[in-house]
Amino acid sequence: MDIKGFSKNIYDPQGRNLGEVKFVHGGVGRNVVENFANVGMPVSYVGMLEDSAIGLEVTQHLKEIGADLSYAVKVPDHGIGIWLAILDEKGDLTGSISKMPDFSYLEAHMKARGEEIIRQAEAVALEVDLNEQVAEMTVNLAKRYGKDVYTIVGNLSVVLARKDLIRQTKCFICNDIEATKFFGKEILGCTTEEVCDWLPKAVEKEGLQSVVVTMGEQGAVYYDKETKSAGICPPCPTKVIDTTGAGDAFFSGTVMGLIRGVPLAEATGYGARLASMTISREENNCPVDKEFFDRLREM
User: HSE (CB half, 13 Å, CA atoms) of 117?
Assistant: First the structure.
């Protein structure tokens, strides 16, 4: 659950700010699940749900949008993460605090049902920084059963410590701040053209399969080692209301495209459009749009 404060006027970090405070369903993994469900892609949520008022509300919403909860685990407490975010008058994030849930429940759940979960999956979208043991189990099981894994970054705690896990995934999607830390090269302030020239060498050196680096309003840069294709995905202009959830939406759209077998260049376009749809609203997800893929094909 996200608690988001929207400043009405120019945000003053030292003073009192009038505005609105809203409770919004969030969480990286949950956001990705909702994005998939909202555009009609079958999706199962593997994570924790809580027997609290907030937890029951999240559970009910996931059921209503059509997400499969067969592999979710109910815990008595500490199963729901909470993210407190402050957004300025432009809708940009200015500060945040996170309360992490107790991932030992999820670790035990994956030990008990991990093989069943991964075996039936078409592909896996993994929030890799949840827990190192969960990430390792997931990647190893996916390798055993020949399932592609697409990784999205959380807080970099596992990503930076276990680059070997990232090397086993089909596509690593991160933003420019995360890429700077992962690759050890400062790319903040660089143009997409500069990053596009540098990225192939960095991907080859790290032994990764494919990488997408999002760069905010500049768009995104990608490289696929298998096809040796690199390029720039331009952003989709829109009126910005709230930028939170944009990265999760970009990841969701890109993975949807890759699962459907389109090249990485086209898949990033799916991601850009889903991100654009998301930042133009106050929620953390894209709107319900069951004709999303049909409209993209027509364009």
Answer: 27
